[in-house]
Structures are given as C-alpha cells and as structure tokens.
Amino acid sequence: MVTPMRAVLRVVVLVLAALVLPAALGTPAVIGALTSLNAPRTDGVSPPPAPVEHDPSKPTAVVVVGDEGAVVSDTLAPYEILATTGAFNVYTVAPAMHPVPLTGGLDLVPDLTFAGLDEVLGGSADVVVVPAMPDVGRPTIEPVTDWLAAQAAGGALLLSVCNGSGVLASAGLLDGRTATAHWLRIDEFERAYGAVDWVRGTRYVDDGDVVSTAGILSGIDGTLRVVERLAGADAAAEAAREIAWPFYHRDGAARLEQAQLAPSDAVVAFNTAFNWGRPNIGVQLTDGVGELELASVFDTYGQSLAVRTVAVGDGAVQSRHGLTFVPRTDTGAGLDRLIVPGTAEHEPVHGMEPEYPHRTAGFAFDSVLQDLARTTDVATAEWTAKVLEYPVDDLALEGPSWPWAETFRLLLLAAVGVLLALGAFALVRARRRGRSGT
Asked: CATH no. for residue 384?
C-alpha cells in the first residue's frame, strides 16, 4: 500500500522529472539568445568614422556608448532626434575608437573617443545621452562612469534612456534625485540604489540637470523634453513630426501604465528556450539610412528573441546623419530573409529578394512589429512592444496567436521526462517484488 508521504514524494519526483529535460535543453538556449544581443565582432575590422564638422555656435550633445555596447534604440533614437533639429552638434563617443555592438549585432563606429571630444570642446558637453549598457555595475563600465562623473561636474545635462539610469546610479550621479527606468529592472535598481527616489508610471522624469526615461522608446519622449528645454517647444514638436512619433506632449511627460509581468509574457521563454530553428534575418546596411529605421529592425527582432539578425553589406556605411556602421558579413550564406531598412533599392543577395518594411508611412517601428506578428506570432509582437514600451492598441497585429510549435516541444520534453520517471518507478517496484519473492 502506498503511504500518503510516498504518494506526495512521487508527485514531487514527477514534477521535477517534467522540468529536467526542458531546463537542461532550454537553459543553454536562453543564455545563448541573451548573450548574442550584444556579442562583439571578432574580426578586428575598425574603419574610421566619417568626419563631423563642429559649429562652435551650437550646443553640443553626445551619445555615449561603452566598450561592450548599448541598446540600439536607446542610442540611435536620441541621436536622430537631436540631429534632426539642426540645433546641436551631435556626436557618438566611447572610451576607445573601435566598433561597439548595439543590440542585435549592429556595429557602430563612434565619432570620437573621450579624449577626442575633449580636444574638440576643451570641456564638458552640453547634453550627454546615456543608453542602457550590458555591463552596468561591472568593472568594464568604469571608464564610462568616471567620464560621466567628470561631465556632470562640468555642468552637462544628463539624459539617461531606459536602464541608462542604472549606469548613472552606479556612478552615484542619481543619489538624492528622482529618476525612472525600464519596468523590467526598476525593482532591481530600487534595491541596489536605495539613495535614488525611483518613480513608476511616467515616460520620463525631469529632475533639473538630470532627465531619466522609462523603457527603450520612452527615450524619445525624454529626448524631446531636452529639445524643448534647449531649443524650444516648436523645435521639439517638429522633430516629433519628422519621426512620426505620436505621443509627444508639450505639457510634460505622458502617463504610462506601469507594466508588470503577465502569464502571456511566458512567450519569451518559449522563443528563447524551445525555438530550435530561429530564423536568420540579414539586415542590409545602405548609405543614407535613417537611424530610427535601423533601430526599428535590429531592436524589434532582437528584443523578440524569436529571430537572429546580422548586418549585411559590402563595407562601412554612413547613416542619414553621418554615423558609421560596419556590417558583419558580405554574403547571404545561412540567411532566411533579407530586410532593407529605409527605402533604398537593393539587388537580390544570393537569390533572396529584399524586403522593405519602411515603404509604409508612419513611425519606423510600426511596420516592423506588424511583420514580426505576421512571421512569428501576435503574442511575440505584443511582448516585444511591451519591452519597447510602445503602445500598440491602435496597431493592427495579425498572424498566428501563439508560438504553438515551441509550446509543443516543451510539452513533449516534459512528457518524456515523466515517462522516464514512471519507468524508473516501475523498475524499482519490479525489483522489490523480485526480492520479496525469493
């Protein structure tokens, strides 16, 4: 007779058995998917950046990136907005002059090193944009945090985008201040940086000489706020129109429903752990492409974790406002699709016809999110929009409702684990009976 305690033990063993195979196979896939977002290039290619003229009559805004990279939209969206106004000298800066990986494998060659910027300005910038960086809190980011402290001491207005507030907080630059961050990490930051008054439910917080924003695309609102302060509300409104950003408010930060993890967000676990044949999307780099157009492709597909992206091209290219990007491959080998950000025509690559998501008017991310829903599933597109902090209530997302194939793989692995455990139970019982019959 099976005792209640033994029955409970068997249930526990069966539950663990159902988890073992999915965890054993899924965990390495999850780690691989996450680490690939900012994986550095390994070929040593490092072309020079395009020269940028400096106008001493204009304020200077810089977007800083660390040696280990940054989130692509956190970096490129503020850059394009500031450059679009024509009111600023705008540079990207980094500790050293080599390509740095932005989310999804887009390699940016910074315009200037910290030392080079000092040669141009002879002091601090007027505005410093701080995107989320993958090594926040680690020793590798210290050159950035030390430089930020010097910029702040020199009077720079600091704009942190998304988890760039973690970079500022780790440098002590938010102590005693009010700030915000991405909904996925604000609780963690609150525990780690208790001297900061962390605020939820807003797209940005203006705390004088520090402006911080919530997740990824909330950085657009924070950048427009900076433009308001330094170039006027009309310049900010015009920049919002130029990029087709629908959420600009002259009267302060728009309220933001504070996101929380929900059961439907489990879609990201299926896409990382059990999507064993993630499609490879080649992203063709072309001269003159908009910075937000690039960001929309690399960040939407990258943050979904349902596909891989790789920058394709014949050599370094310059974006619409003069940034230098370097492709990682010049062939279509191993690619499933070829996406061309912007509207520049391109020849087929290895028989793949180029796809142009930005031929549809509107904000750059709209058509890419719609493509993600159509080619993966709606749940994945909704998760990605949630991570991007981009409302999609008015955006038609059509496609499969859920990653059913990945879900089936999980259930199959769990079933195999349970069957193995049941087989082990049966074997133990048979051996016990054999011993009792002798």
From this structure: 3.40.50.880
β-sheet bridge partners, residue 63: 92, 129
Task: Report how far Cα 369 is from the mean position of its chain's Cα atoms.
Answer: 14
The sheet with strand 89-94 has its strands ordered as 112-113, 89-94, 60-64, 127-130, 157-160, 210-213, 204-206
Q: Is 407 part of any domain?
A: no
pLDDT of residue 287: 96
* Size of the chain in residues: 438
Q: Which of 74, 56, 54 is nearest to 64 (CA)?
A: 74
Give the integer Cα–Cα distance in Å for 298 and 300: 6
Residue in 264, 250, 238 with CA at minimum distance from that of residue 85: 238
**Residue 411 annotated in active site:** no
Which domain, by its residues, includes 124?
A: 60-243
Mean pLDDT (the chain) is: 94
* Residue among 397, 391, 395, 390 nearest 73 (CA): 390
Give the C-alpha distances (Å, rounded to integers) separating 69 from 73, 75, 321: 12, 10, 20
| Neighbouring residues of 124: CB distance < 8 A, sequence distance ≥ 6 | 150, 151, 153, 154, 155, 156
Tokens of 188: 């963690």
Please report the beta strands in 220-327, taking only residues with DSSP state E, as ranges in sequence order. Answer: 280-284, 308-312, 317-318, 324-326
Same domain? 164 vs 298? no
Q: Report how far apart, in Å, the C-alpha atoms of 437 and of each of 29, 431, 432 are.
A: 48, 10, 9
Residues 6+ apart with CB under 8 A from 32: none
Please count the helices (runs of H) and the strands (runs of E) in the chain: 13, 16
Q: Report d(CA 293, CA 340) in Å as an integer.
A: 9
Count: domains in the chain: 2
How would you classify residue 128: left for phi > 0, otherwise alpha for psi between -120 and 50, otherwise beta?
beta
pLDDT digits (tens, 9 = 90+) for 249-301: 888 887 888 899 999 999 999 999 998 888 999 999 999 999 999 999 999 99
Task: Select which of 132, 161, 162, 171 is catalytic.
Answer: 162
Task: State whether 278 and 314 are in the same domain.
Answer: yes
